[in-house]
Structures are given as structure tokens and as C-alpha cells.
């Protein structure tokens, strides 16, 4: 299967006062399965992982309801407050849904960059591990040392770094990002998504993302990288088919089955869908 391991749906009516702003005209509207399906069919994509975009239980409910109706949604990564007193109970309840595969706190928007290393998260992490769920890390480069501490502490929790940690491609900051990513890649339970890079390039040509994408492949290896479109956010910087084709040009052909499907199936336990 060709799996898109990172995409989103949303309704503007649910996002009053939240991102995206009207100025981002390319994504300032509703996005639902009927909008993505033609792009998937053209590209030969057979399944997706639907990822949260709001810090609400309602957003997770919305995604799970879509998954109930659309079999191409193979997994859902939702949100919950991992420091809530009842976080473990929430995880147990969510885990009963066959499409619920993991959680994603929006670390990039949390003012405290060390939020992730708070021991208050431990009960939620234990519940995730016990129910074979995963952790999506929505981080920026400044969060990577803290994510390393978290990942080192919780070696039983599968972790995937979304969008390569959003490297500062637009201004060419590479060395420190690579060093921090290499430390995380040394941990066998940490994966990385080949996604979201085009929107970090600023005014540079798309080819500017190639060194970063190649570094992700080199550091994490073919067995711990998974392709994602980050659609519809991708619309701000590129085209669905073009990003898939570009990613295929970076990944050696011998590893296409793993990076463009197999790794996502294994990491998110998608085989039951």
C-alpha cells in the first residue's frame, strides 16, 4: 500500500479565532475527504493517517467520525491533555476505537519548550505504551534537546518527529539541526516523517529542501522514515503529486516500499484497517 502518513481535515466553523488566518487564502476553507480523494487516486495513494490540528477533544471526535465513514483513513492521531489528572483514563477510552493510533500535543505552540520533560506526563505515557499507541512530536528545532530527554526516558514509546522538526530551511540553519536530529536518530524507537519541508523553505526554490530530506534518510535509515503530504497545509507551498514525486526522487528506489507505506503500516499498526 502507498500510505500518506500525515494529512489533515478541518471545518472553519470549528476554528473561530484559530489558525489558519484568512490571509492564508489557499487553506482558509473547509477540507474534507472529497477534497483529498481525487488527489489520492491520481497519485495511487491507498490510505492515510489523519492527524489532529486543534487542542480539543472535539477535533479528535471529528476525525474518528470521518474514519468511521471513510476506509481510506487507516489511522487517527488525536489530541488530549497529557497532564490532565484523567489522561490515562482518556487514553484507555480512546484506545477502544480501532482507528485511534496515537496522540500529538502541539509542542510547537507551547511557550515552555521543556514541557515535554515534565514527569507529570509519565502516567499518560505508560497508558500509551500499554495500549500500543504512539507519540507524534510536533516540534521545532529548539525543542529537540528536550525531545531527546523525553525519548531517552521513555524507550518503550514509539515516537515520530513530524516534518523533520521543521528545520529553518529559509535561513539555511543546518548544522545544529543535524546534530540534534542525529542524537534522536540514534534511538531505535524514534522515527521521522518526510513531510512539511516545502513550507519551511521560504522564498527559496523547492530544491532547497533536498539536503534536509536527504539528511533525514541518512540519519534514520530507510526503516524509520515515512512519507507524509501534510495536505492541505502543503497547498501553501506546493502540489500533492509534485511533493510525492520529489520525495520519490530522494528516496532510493529499493526503499520505496518501506518509506511510502510499509513503515507507516508498522509504526501505526495500520494492518487492522
From TrEMBL:
Residues 3-269 form the Amidohydrolase-related domain. Gene3D superfamilies: Metal-dependent hydrolases (3.20.20.140). Transmembrane segments: none annotated. One of its GO terms (molecular function) is hydrolase activity. InterPro entries: Amidohydro-rel (IPR006680), Metal_Hydrolase (IPR032466), Metallo-dep_Lactonases (IPR052350). Pfam families: Amidohydro_2 (PF04909). Keywords: Hydrolase. Belongs to the metallo-dependent hydrolases superfamily. This is Amidohydrolase. It comes from Agrobacterium bohemicum.
Amino acid at each position: 500500500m502507498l500510505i500518506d502518513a500525515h494529512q489533515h481535515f478541518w471545518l472553519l466553523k470549528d476554528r473561530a479565532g484559530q489558525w489558519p488566518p484568512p490571509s492564508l487564502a489557499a487553506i482558509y476553507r473547509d477540507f474534507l475527504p472529497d477534497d483529498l480523494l481525487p488527489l489520492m487516486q491520481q497519485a495511487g495513494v491507498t490510505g492515510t493517517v489523519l492527524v489532529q490540528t486543534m487542542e480539543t477533544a472535539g477535533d479528535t471526535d471529528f476525525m474518528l467520525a470521518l474514519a468511521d465513514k471513510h476506509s481510506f483513513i487507516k489511522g487517527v492521531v488525536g489530541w488530549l491533555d497529557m497532564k490532565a489528572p484523567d489522561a490515562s483514563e482518556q487514553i484507555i477510552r480512546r484506545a477502544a476505537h480501532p482507528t485511534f493510533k496515537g496522540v500529538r500535543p502541539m509542542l510547537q505552540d507551547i511557550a515552555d519548550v521543556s514541557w515535554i520533560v515534565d514527569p507529570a506526563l509519565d502516567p499518560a505515557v505508560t497508558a500509551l505504551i500499554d495500549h500500543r499507541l504512539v507519540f507524534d512530536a510536533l516540534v521545532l528545532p529548539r525543542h529537540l534537546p528536550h525531545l531527546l530527554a523525553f525519548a531517552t526516558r521513555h524507550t518503550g514509546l514509539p515516537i515520530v518527529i513530524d516534518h523533520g522538526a521543521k528545520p529553518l530551511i529559509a535561513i539555511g540553519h543546518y548544522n545544529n539541526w543535524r546534530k540534534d536530529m542525529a542524537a534522536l536518530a540514534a534511538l531505535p524507537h524514534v522515527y521521522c516523517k518526510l513531510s512539511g519541508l516545502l513550507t519551511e523553505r521560504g522564498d527559496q526554490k523547492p530544491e532547497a529542501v533536498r539536503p534536509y530530506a536527504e539528511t533525514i534518510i541518512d540519519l534514520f535509515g530507510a526503516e524509520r522514515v515515512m512519507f507524509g503530504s501534510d495536505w492541505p497545509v502543503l497547498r501553501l507551498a506546493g502540489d500533492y503529486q509534485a511533493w510525492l514525486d520529489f520525495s520519490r526522487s530522494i528516496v532510493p528506489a529499493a526503499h520505496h516500499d518501506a518509506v511510502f507505506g510499509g513503515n507507516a503500516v508498522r509504526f501505526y499498526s495500520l494492518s487492522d484497517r
